[in-house]
Amino acid sequence: MQVLVLNSGSSSLKYQLISMPEETILCSGIIERIGLDDAIFKYKTDKDSVDLVTAIPNHKVGLELVAKQLLDAETGIIKSTDDIAVVGHRVVHGGKYFSDTTEITTEVKEKIKALISLAPLHNPANLEGIEVAEAIFPNAKQVAVFDTAFHQSIPEKAYLYAIPKAYSDEHSIRLYGFHGTSHKYVSEKATEYLGKKASNVITIHLGNGCSMSAVKDGKCIDHSLGFSPVNGLIMGTRSGDIDQSIIFYLAKKLNYSLDEINTLLQKKSGMLGLTGYSDLRDIQAEAEKGNTDCQLALAMNTYRIKKYIGSYAAVLNGLDAIVFTAGIGENSDLVREMVCEDMDFFGLELNKEENAKRSGEIREINLPTSKAKILVIPTNEELEIAKQSVDLFEN
Question: Annotated catalytic sites, by residue?
Answer without folding.
Answer: 147
